[in-house]
Amino acid sequence: MNLVVRETVLAFRRAPLLSALSVTTIAFSLFVFGLFGLVTVNIQRVIGTVAERVEVVAYLRRAATSEAITVAMSDIQAFPEVASVTHVTEADALARARRELPEFQDIFQDQSANPLPASLDVRLKPEFRDARHAALVAERLRALDLVDDVRYGSDWVAKLDHLRNIAGAVGLVVGAAFALVAIIIIGTTIRMAVLQRGAEIAIMRLVGATDGFIRRPFLLEGLVKGLMGGALSLLLCYGAFALVNTYLFRADFFTTGEALAGVGAGGLLGLVGSLVSIGRHLHTV
Amino acid sequence: MIKFSHVTKEYPKGAALTDVSFHVPKGQFCFLTGHSGAGKSTALKLIYLAEQPTSGDVRVSGFSSTRIAPREVPRLRRRLGIVFQDFRLLEDRTAEENVAFALEVTGARRSTIGPRVMRVLTQVGLAGKANQYPRELSGGEQQRVAIARALVNDPVVLLADEPTGNLDERATRGIFQLLRDINASGTAVLMATHDLDLVKSFDAHLVELQHGSVAYDSAEDAGADEEAAP
Description:
- The complex is a heterodimer.
- By secondary structure, chain A is α+β, with helices and mostly antiparallel strands.
- Chain A has helices spanning 2-14, 16-51, 66-77, 90-100, 105-110, 131-142, 154-196, 198-206, 211-247, 256-284; strands spanning 55-60, 82-88, 119-124, 147-151.
- Chain A has 2 domains: 2-49 and 161-284, no CATH class; 55-151, Alpha-Beta Plaits, CATH 3.30.70.
- Chain A is 73% helix and 8% strand.
- Chain A has a 4-stranded antiparallel beta sheet.
- In chain A, α1 (2-14) crosses α2 and α1 (2-14) crosses α9.
- Chain A is elongated.
- Chain B is α/β, with parallel strands linked by helices.
- Chain B has 8 helices and 10 strands.
- In chain B, α3 packs across α4, α3 (95-104) runs parallel beside α5 (139-151) and α5 runs parallel beside α6 (169-184).
- Chain B is globular.
- Chain B starts with a strand and ends with a helix.
């Protein structure tokens, strides 16, 4: 192993320009991919916050007893899609209406009788915040005796679904395209490094080096270059993010896990790129 | 130790060797001669298994070309020393590092590498230039480094493909003398060359190839003489 590390360090020292060039190339191709990743992450988070508002509201009949409501609540809570159920009494509803709809304050003030019904506000778990599941839950709520009517803004949820599908499809296609470009560029860069040392590989084979022995320094070199490129691209992404955050709008950055995964992906690309290049080269020398 | 038995090697362009048989015993000095394109380099490639024969069998130090597994090829090559006309040194390493390289790839222990490298560099007369790079050395000196690299693994046979082809008269004499000294210390030498003056100057086993076939083999000639003798 000692020798492998030494040969790898030597490879960087002997061809510093080429090494720097490959690290930069890897960094920039990952940077493009990373920028796209940032856009995707932010869109997903915005959609996520919007989706949090997906709520199914079951309006209760005035005759509903508090025992019946308690039983219904625990039933509803047991639905697999449901995150939480909140009982909003008539008085709560009135207070909320006064608070949230100030322009109608007069109406609510004037009437001595409260026109608003009590309701059960049902919030869904994140993975079920779409039109199909909202409709499903609404259907079940409607079947309950104490429920008068159910609303969940079906048009709005359907539009959210649509938006989410488009964002997902675009993300997948464009992301795959960017990833492919990054893989090709990185593969070519590493292949250049391997070709540059073709004479060395040929001599190693002549003096009886095993394929594994020849491969190891190249693999380590590819891994190190990939990791360095990944770290550099992360810095570039952070720079771009900071600029956008300062001058344009508030955005979110990758989580630590996502950032580490990105750098790791760089290393993996370097490793696989080297494996493929050197594999092909070993058979032609 | 090296034995060609009815070896034919065909390339898409045509046959390079046709039904070639000859034998180089242990410790022998053998010339492989013939014009360019006669098949000398192909014969050497078959010995270090850069190529496989189309038919026939090449046996080298207990390995058979027809039976050897690909993973055993490196083990075979460690028993051979190979020297080329164009030296094939790594330009970015010193003479010493070039020689040490051949030991490192075999996984030799670091502590043994230094002394062994200096021993062979001394043997080829380059101990004083161990820290020089190939570009700082003359052609003859570069070939000595290549020979030192070939010797450092204590090979059973040294294969030399036109080792003096790029050298002037004086350097040629020096390298040839070195190869003879190496042979005198027990290592077999198989030298491919088209330098007839060199061949004539030294009484050794001679195999001559012509258009991919053995045109003359001094060993068979001697054998025939013995058979003819009463």
